[in-house]
Specification:
Layout: H1 26-32, H2 42-50, H3 61-76, E1 83-91, E2 98-111, E3 116-119, E4 124-126, E5 130-134, H4 136-147
Antiparallel strand pairs: 1-2, 1-5, 2-3, 3-4
Length: 153
């Protein structure tokens, strides 16, 4: 059995190089065969869609009254700069919903022009986004106010 080598006539010839085109570098040649991402950004979109956001809770009338009372107490005690914990809603910039955060700091002032509550750490909280305000001193004052019953004839 004889083996027929069809390439015996060209196997020892020198490698051809074009006189018209420059040689391509190894890194450029490798880039031609690298993987192709047809759906660029698709994974990021899936991650964004899967990201959880809270819906904004609507405050009932009792909660709104409590927040209004606390805001008035804050205005009255502004010089003392009481420490408060404010729970408020931060809307998500990419999709519907957002999340709630509780910030604890000392009260500085209320900006009536921008309708924001400003804390001493520089945080500005839109008043319409506030869901709850807590302060131990306020709780004592509210408890005392709850125990006072109006005089009836």
């Amino acid at each position: 059995m004889t083996i027929n080598n069809n390439y015996d006539d060209i196997i020892n010839l020198p490698h051809y190089t074009s006189s018209r085109r420059n040689c391509i570098s190894a890194s450029d040649r490798a880039a031609q065969f690298s993987s192709f991402a047809a759906l660029t950004g698709f994974e990021a979109e899936i991650d964004e869609a899967a990201r959880f956001t809270d819906s904004r809770l609507e405050a009932d009338d009792d909660r709104k009254s409590k927040i209004d009372a606390y805001l008035q107490l804050l205005i009255d005690t502004q010089l003392q700069q009481p420490e408060i914990s404010v729970t408020y809603f931060i809307p998500d910039i990419k999709k519907e919903g957002g999340f709630y955060i509780t910030q604890t700091s000392c009260f500085k002032r209320i900006d009536e022009y921008e309708y924001t509550l400003i804390l001493t750490n520089g945080t500005k909280i839109p008043i319409h986004d506030i869901y709850d305000i807590e302060n131990p001193a306020f709780a004592k004052e509210n408890a005392m106010a709850d125990n006072i019953r109006p005089y009836t004839y």
